[in-house]
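Query structure, 317 C-alpha cells:
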C-alpha cells in the first residue's frame, strides 16, 4: 500500500508542472499581436480572412490589423509598436537597407497589378507621351515600368509617370479621364475591364515578385519564435480554406470587400491562381525585389528566414 501511494504521489508531482502550465496558459488567453497592412485590399485576403474567420484565434492569437503606410509600418516594427508587417517587398527593402527585419512567409507568387488604359489605347506603343499614374516606388510602379519597357518604350522618356496612391483612387481617376493609364490591383482592374478599359499587361504573366507575406523583426524570430509559428499556422489554415471552400470565399469577398457577384467570382479565380498554399518563400520572387534595389548579389538568408515555415510544415505532417 505504501508503495502504491508513493508511486501515486510521485506521479502527481511529475505531471503537476505540466497541468499547472496548461492552466496558466488557459487563464492567460490568446496572445495580443498587432499586424500592419497597407490597405483593406484583396491582396491581403489571407490576413483579413484569418482575422474574420477565426484562424488567428484558433492558434491562440488575438490579432489587431492596422492599415498603415509601408514606411511607417517598418518604423513601428522597429519601435516594437507592431509585431508583424504583411508587406513582403517592404520587409525585404528594410532588410536590404540594414534594418533587423526578415521575411518569413509568402502568400502570393506575384502581384495582381495590371496596366490598364483608356479604351482608345490598344497597346503599349500607344502610350507614348501619355500619363500613367502609379504609387512611386510601390509594386504597381515597378510592374508598370517593367511592362512599358517590355512593350518597347523607355519608361524614363517615352511616358509621363505621376504619383497617385491607392488602386481605388487611380481607378476613379481613370474613369474621369484625368489620366491615360494606371496600375490597378484586384478588384479594380476587373471592374475597369468590365467597363471597357484595356488591359495592356499584367504582372502575373511576366514575373514572380514578393509582395504579400509575413515580415517581422529578428528579435521576434529569436525571442518569440513560437508566436511567429502561430502566425504561419494561421496563414496556412487560411490558404487551405481559400483552396477548398470556394463558395464561402466568394461570399466573403462579396461581403467584406463589397463586390458584386461577378467581380467577386473572377477575383477569386485570379487570387487562387497566384496563392502559395504552403506559404514558402520563393527565391525567384525575392530575387526580383533584390534586383530592383540593385542588390541581386545578396544571399536569400540575408533578407529572409526560410527555415521557420519548414519547421511548421514538418510539425503539421
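Result returned for the query:
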Amino acid at each position: 500500500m505504501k508503495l502504491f501511494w508513493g508511486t501515486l504521489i510521485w506521479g502527481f508531482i511529475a505531471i503537476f508542472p505540466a497541468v499547472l502550465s496548461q492552466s496558466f496558459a488557459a487563464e492567460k488567453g490568446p496572445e495580443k499581436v498587432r499586424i500592419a497592412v497597407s490597405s483593406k485590399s484583396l491582396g491581403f485576403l489571407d490576413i483579413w480572412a484569418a482575422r474574420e474567420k477565426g484562424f488567428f484565434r484558433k492558434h491562440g492569437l488575438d490579432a489587431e490589423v492596422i492599415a498603415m503606410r509601408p514606411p511607417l509600418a517598418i518604423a513601428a516594427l522597429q519601435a516594437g509598436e507592431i509585431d508583424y508587417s504583411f508587406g513582403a517587398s517592404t520587409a525585404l527593402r528594410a532588410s536590404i537597407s540594414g534594418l533587423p527585419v526578415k521575411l518569413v512567409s509568402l502568400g502570393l507568387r506575384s502581384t495582381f497589378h495590371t496596366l490598364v488604359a483608356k479604351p482608345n489605347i490598344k497597346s503599349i506603343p500607344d502610350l507614348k507621351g501619355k500619363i500613367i499614374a502609379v504609387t512611386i516606388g510601390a509594386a504597381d510602379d515597378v510592374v508598370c515600368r517593367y511592362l512599358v519597357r517590355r512593350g518597347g518604350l523607355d519608361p524614363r522618356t517615352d511616358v509621363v509617370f505621376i504619383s497617385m496612391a491607392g488602386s481605388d483612387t487611380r481607378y476613379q481617376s481613370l474613369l474621369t479621364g484625368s489620366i491615360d493609364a494606371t496600375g490597378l490591383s484586384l478588384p479594380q482592374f476587373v471592374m475597369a475591364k468590365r467597363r471597357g478599359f484595356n488591359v495592356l499587361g499584367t504582372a502575373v504573366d511576366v514575373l514572380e515578385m514578393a509582395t504579400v507575406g509575413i515580415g517581422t523583426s529578428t528579435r521576434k524570430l529569436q525571442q518569440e519564435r513560437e508566436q511567429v509559428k502561430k502566425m504561419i499556422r494561421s496563414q496556412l489554415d487560411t490558404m487551405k480554406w481559400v483552396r477548398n471552400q470556394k463558395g464561402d470565399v466568394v461570399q466573403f469577398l462579396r461581403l467584406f470587400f463589397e463586390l458584386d457577384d461577378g467581380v467577386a467570382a473572377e477575383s477569386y479565380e485570379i487570387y487562387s491562381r497566384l496563392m502559395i498554399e504552403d506559404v514558402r518563400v520563393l527565391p525567384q520572387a525575392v530575387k526580383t525585389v533584390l534586383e530592383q534595389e540593385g542588390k541581386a548579389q545578396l544571399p536569400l538568408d540575408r533578407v529572409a528566414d526560410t527555415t521557420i515555415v519548414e519547421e511548421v510544415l514538418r510539425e503539421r505532417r
